[in-house]
Design a protein that fits this description.
The chain contains five helices and six strands. The protein has 149 residues and is α/β, with parallel strands linked by helices. A six-stranded mixed beta sheet has the order 2-3-1-4-5-6, sandwiched between helices. The relative contact order is 0.23. The mean pLDDT is 88.
């Protein structure tokens, strides 16, 4: 059973990556799909339910800091899940450009990017990850995945 945590700016390709790589075999937990109030609690409940059921899952949020990731990792450890992190390398200007192609609730205000970039910390094995990967978007818009060094 895998608990995968995505880490990166808004519009860095996280949800597209999920749909291409994991949608068929993992539960998808994203605060973007939740009502405004109580997102943290609802996310924790959904993670707990998936883990209790023995399902692999992806937490598809920005998860910018080690503090943001700690509770998720702790939940996974409780169920002996393999904890895997995917760090989405991104340039804020490119993310903001992709964001401008969004509509409605999916459109993130510019201030959201700046708030996230201030908190964004690269993940570290010391946080409790079993595996870490580095994801980039190539020139042909394909995902390039490398093992964390």
């Amino acid at each position: 059973m895998e608990l995968i945590i995505f880490i990166g700016l808004q519009a860095s390709g996280k949800s597209t990556f999920f749909h291409q790589k994991f949608a068929a075999i993992h539960e998808h937990i994203s605060k973007d799909l939740m009502p405004r109030k109580g997102k943290e609690l609802r996310q924790a409940q959904l993670i707990e339910a998936a883990l209790q059921a023995g399902k692999s899952l992806v937490v598809d949020n920005t998860n910018p800091s080690s503090i943001d990731r700690a509770a998720i990792i702790q939940q996974g450890r409780k169920y002996q899940a393999t904890i895997i992190g995917y760090y989405f390398c991104s340039v804020i200007d490119q993310c903001m450009q992709r964001n401008r192609q969004r509509e409605g609730k999916a459109l993130v205000p510019d201030v959201g990017f700046y708030a996230t970039v201030k908190k964004l910390e690269q993940p570290d094995y010391a946080e409790g990850f079993d595996r870490l990967f580095y994801v980039q978007i190539g020139e042909a818009n394909q995902f390039i995945i490398n093992h964390w060094a």
